[in-house]
Design a protein that fits this description.
The complex is a heterotetramer, with 2 copies of chain A (218 residues) and 2 copies of chain B (233 residues). Chain A is α/β, with parallel strands linked by helices. Helix content of chain A is 17%, strand content 25%. Chain A starts with a helix and ends in a 10-residue tail after the last strand. Chain B is an alpha/beta fold. The chains are: A alpha/beta (218), B alpha/beta (233). Chains in contact: A-B, A-C, B-C, B-D, C-D.
């Protein structure tokens, strides 16, 4: 049985390390903030210009001048700092963010990612996603393994316009944790109750299996 | 206005010289930190054929959406325009030319424009549709594209406080694109919530030095919220 | 140090991992805002073959001059080195390789290094000896040269105050090259006059966010003055 | 009779306009600050990172953390702001400074300036001079018309390594005020008591004379 969006977030939270500066994209990545492991300190970066994003405000503390990159009202954590978007992307482009988590439509065996544009449908724009994937050393992509019809989104080559080329190394889906290296997806973990066969079936890109496939710990 | 005093008292005066066909930078991220009253003044003046450089395009009935309603914008540079149905319609019909630009590249192109740097290399967008037609180069084993800088005839800025000399302070994340844009306009016009005397702002805390600012006006602001997210107490 | 706490308590710990042959950025303009104690610690450790990136080279017996005295520097990037006789001697004898770089270009090369921009065009130095061997390009009728960015193994920074998370505030013109250098070191070490708890600095007033800072140490400073100019009361 | 350094500064101060942001180089340019005309407001920029440089401090107010680009202790004027050297040169390179005044060893009819290096002698470095001449639209160069042996420093082509190419339009010397355009020096004013003949004699570069040569007002 595939894991839920919340469980994907829970699994990704295990990638956080004490002292990390982290950028969480919109959607499932945002949920990761709810599962930061006990006993570790991390700082959340919001690319509009805030380091040290806190939780949502109470109704009385809503401040139109304090939003995150998803345009949601937020608060500041202890030790927060404020800066321009140019400074914010200097941090991102300069590789200062330790971990970036973002969603995708497709990934492929070369580490390419497509996440911003579906030709023929509405083009909303890439926002900061192209900068985030170009700037980060350490990116985790969160996505559904296949679409609702069962078509794989884990491909040999992305079919949609790219967000970034050869930049993705780790993917967490509702079915599996995958590492991308040497032109293939390497299966690291499977979701609880998901068979290796199902993962093979729903992975269109070249897949390398280990002898034993551990189950995601949640 | 005389000497170093940048204060003007009417929005008409604030936008004097802004004419059809000009290129404008408009500060803000989403609806946060946008120069609300400068935008409505442009709507009222009815200036057209504008090229706007702004991270977003407002929503249908607020921010730059107000100018889209009246077909005053012919071209826009932005990174994300997903909040605006009118925008979509005008883009698909070809009324509006859209240059989608990655957010960090947009920020840096503006900063470069203000800093006298005509072009720079960045890895952002390499291997994507953004790189089409752009010079690429491999430097120390990584691939980059060359991005030219951006400047504008007018930069329209929202800050929290100004002193009479145009030194600016922004509040919270309403800073966003405003500081770079303030440096990249031939004429930089700033609307603020409060104007204080020169000398009242601590020199250490000034985000935008007055050298970049031509006109300052005090306004009142709706500050509409796009995504009101709250938690229980 | 654990989590986001960057505070260290000895200068040896502050410079752990700094070894012979490394490239260092050293903050300050003249003797103003230099990391005095980090420099004397390097002298005491005796690390050699250093490449230093610093606007100036100190004076004979203070600042980077202390490392020149012991021949610890093999190469230096600087914009102005006129205060230092020892420097002159080592440069003329060929012991010291000097890459003179215009001050604004130096500042921007460092800022670019920290911001992930590998190279940019600038008009500064076009048609001068600085342009020799560099790519030039005409853009919109002006001539520019291409300048690659700079990064370093260590950035040695002086700030006024830090909080425990490494957020920094500078004082007066002791800011100078420190903020850019803080972004461009693989390891950024900061010495300060005061360390406060996280949360005590107003987020609006932080000049260097802690994300750039690896280690913070509290020191005491001589703050030598190069040109004491005064007026009568 | 040639004018003094102080008088050169006094003449240059007439180039200041109300509301100007001005960068004054080391030497004679620094003296200009003493002659700011009554009734106008200007802001002095110091390229190490200060806009709004004030006068020298009293002995009690000397602050090692507050110096100008000449490394002299200074104070801040009302409305001053502080920033990094990168921001400072963004201002300069971006053309935001209204007037730059700096010294030179040589200038020539093409608007070239040499001011930083005398080969064979000590090389001190260019500091911010190359950025200042490349960034400013409006530059006034202050210099002696000739060296102590009478050799002109107002040339057809600079002999020393350049600080900047084709960037100088106005020169104020101890003998004259000159405009550079169309490949020649145009004599605008002569110093009190200095004959046009002396200026001709001490100007090696092509010189264009007007019908009447007004005297510098001091």
């Amino acid at each position: 049985m595939a894991v839920s969006r919340e469980q994907i977030a829970q699994r990704i939270a295990q990638e956080l390390k004490d002292g990390y500066y982290v950028n969480l994209g919109i959607g499932i990545p945002t949920l990761v903030a709810n599962y930061i492991p006990e006993g570790i300190e991390v700082m959340l970066q919001s690319e509009n210009g805030l380091l040290g994003m806190g939780e949502f405000p109470t109704e009385e503390n809503v401040d139109a001048d304090l939003i995150n990159a998803g345009k949601q009202t937020v608060t500041m954590a202890k030790g927060a700092s404020l800066f321009s978007s140019a400074e914010s992307f200097a941090m991102i482009r300069g590789g200062h963010v330790d971990l970036t988590v973002l969603g995708a439509f497709e990934v492929d065996v070369s580490g390419n990612i497509a996440s911003w544009m579906i030709p023929g449908k509405l083009i909303k724009g890439m926002g900061g996603a192209m900068d985030l994937v170009a700037g980060a050393e350490n990116i985790v992509v969160t996505m559904m393994h296949a679409d609702k019809k069962g078509n794989s989104k884990i491909l040999d080559a992305c079919t949609l316009p790219l967000t970034g080329a050869q930049c993705i190394k780790k993917v967490v889906t509702d079915l599996a944790v995958l590492e991308i290296k040497d032109g293939a997806f390497h299966l690291l973990e499977r979701a609880p109750g998901v068979s290796v066969e199902e993962i093979i079936e729903k992975t269109a890109g070249k897949l390398i299996l280990p002898d034993v496939v551990p189950v995601m710990k949640l | 206005m005389a000497g170093l005093n940048k204060v003007v008292t009417s929005y008409q005066e604030a936008l004097a010289g802004l004419t059809d066909g000009m290129t404008l930078m408009v500060g803000g991220f989403g609806l946060c930190g946008i120069p609300e009253n400068l935008i409505t003044t442009m709507r009222d003046i009815g200036v057209t054929d504008l090229t706007c450089i702004s991270n977003n395009a407002g929503v249908d009935d607020f921010g730059l959406g107000l100018l889209l309603q009246k077909n005053q914008i012919k071209k826009i540079y932005a990174s994300y325009v997903g909040e605006n149905a009118l925008f979509e319609k005008q883009m698909l019909s070809g009324e509006l030319e859209v240059v989608l630009t990655p957010q960090g590249t947009l920020a840096e192109k503006i900063r470069a424009g203000g800093a006298g740097i005509p072009a720079f290399f960045t890895a952002t967008g390499y291997g994507t549709p953004i790189a089409e037609g752009k010079e690429t180069r491999e430097i120390d084993g990584r691939h980059y594209i060359l991005e030219p800088s951006l400047t504008a005839d007018f930069a329209l800025i929202k800050a929290w406080k100004a002193d009479t000399m145009g030194n600016l302070v922004y509040r919270n994340t309403a800073m966003n694109f405003n500081p770079m844009m303030a440096t990249a306009g031939k004429i930089t016009v700033v609307e603020v919530e409060e104007i204080v005397e020169a000398g009242e702002l601590d020199p250490h805390h000034i985000h935008t030095p007055g050298i970049y600012v031509n006109r300052v006006i005090k306004g009142t602001f709706e500050k509409r919220i796009e995504q009101r997210t709250v938690k229980a107490r």
